[in-house]
Amino acid sequence: MRGGRQSFGKEVSAPRFSFARGLGLGGYRIANGAGSRHKQKEGASLLTNLKVHFKNNPLLFYAMSIAATWANAGSLLNGVATAQGNGILPFLLWALGNTLACIVFGIFAPLIPKLRDVFRSRIMKIVMGIMCPFQCWISMNGIQTVFAGTVLGPKWGVVIGLGFAAFFIFLLYRFGMIRNVLTDHMSWSAVYALVFLLTILALATSRGAYVPLRWGGEQAGVGLKNCLLLIPGAFLYPYYFELLDYNDKNADGTAKINVRKAFVGGGLIFGFYLVFIFLMSLASFTPALNLIKAVLVTLIAVSSLSSFQYSIYLTFGRKLGLALNVLTAGLWQFLIPLGVMGMWTLMASVRIYIVGAGILAAIIWRLAEKRKAVAA
Q: Fold for domain 50-375?
């Protein structure tokens, strides 16, 4: 999530997340100047109305934010690559895993006793912090890959990827996460609008010369593997645990909802987005459309990149976090050949064991408590 002006101490304890502030609803500042007074009033009115709607009925805000948090550059690039390279069935299995990931988390995370305590523990926070560079590399690989297909070429893709990484490293080092830019709700409304427009234009300009897709039954194993790797992934997103806590406490008066509905809604919203990714895999892209696609992927990737760089600062502190963020950007050049899918597969293969260990630890902890209570 994007945040506001914030300083980091030498040691960083578990941050308390304010969902309203994370949405950009707190501390909003509008540019000064005599010529902008009318815009100030309009902006303030829009923000006030948005805040009122959010506090009275946060379900859609939660769902949109859940979908936005789950998405990254790989959701578009890996989706198209899977449909074209492996076939329709592997794509459907991959899409099913993506859609179910947030839904499974929303249903089971509040249900399994002690699970939230396990993932709040210091050791799990460090483990999740170590996973953050993988997410950064996926985002940077996405930027590099998508610009490689434009007139700018792969070298400019590397420059743009490193440029964004360096910008956020030092911006976050000084100010913390940018809190006053766009809300997840508004930004992802724009993403959905852009992906809809790009899909329609790409299909129209293809003029019937669509990319042939095979059924891919022989590649079903690949799709099933990706599906199973995706489903537990949401358990390593600290933000989702913070959202559960926020909804439980309602410290700022935001209406409490059935948060499971929000996660189910977020998963379905993301699944709807993947419908357009599948349609894109049928289309041919002109140089102009490739540039629009690059902008779309960059918009998605930068959001994810900055969030995980911020998570590194929060987990490891200001100085060590800076060193790790710089090291992450520096090592990226050696990992570019893995591509988006290769980097995602490497990360997903590791995290499934981490999530499994966390769930097992929660079950053992609960059983131990029950035995202790019986013995007493």
A: Amino acid/polyamine transporter I (1.20.1740)
pLDDT of residue 227: 94
Give me the residue label for tokens 């743009």.
160
Contact 77, 297 (CB under 8 A): yes
- Give the pLDDT band of residue 129 (cuts 50, 70, 90): confident
Tokens of 1: 């999530």
User: What is the Cα 133 distance to its own chain's centre?
Assistant: 14
pTM of the prediction? 0.77
